[in-house]
Design a protein that fits this description.
This protein is α+β, with helices and mostly antiparallel strands. About 50% of the residues lie in helices and about 15% in strands. A two-stranded antiparallel sheet has the order 1-2.
Length: about 90
């Protein structure tokens, strides 16, 4: 999606943006950290993208490096982690 298309989608409210105080962002980051630290297979994870870098954001991007992992299991594991973090 081009920048012009993205701006038009935001203007037309097709893309919802969120804005929360920095303290609330820290709380959310800590919840995500706590949940992911419980996973033995996760070597490291980090937050990136607009949630971290900007005042407004659409979603929360999380990169996760997993050890001892069969490639065929990635989709199930991703959905399981997503469900676990979203519930908090």
């Amino acid at each position: 999606m081009s920048l012009k298309s993205r701006k038009e989608a935001i203007k037309n409210r097709e893309i919802k943006l969120y804005q929360i105080p920095e303290e609330e962002k820290r709380k959310i980051s800590n919840i995500i950290k706590s949940e992911l630290e419980e996973e033995d297979r996760i070597a490291f994870a980090y937050l990136f993208g607009s949630f971290i870098e900007n005042a407004y954001f659409r979603d929360i991007d999380i990169a996760v490096f997993v050890e001892n992992f069969k490639e065929s299991d990635w989709y199930y594991y991703e959905i399981t982690l997503l469900d676990k973090v979203e519930k908090k």
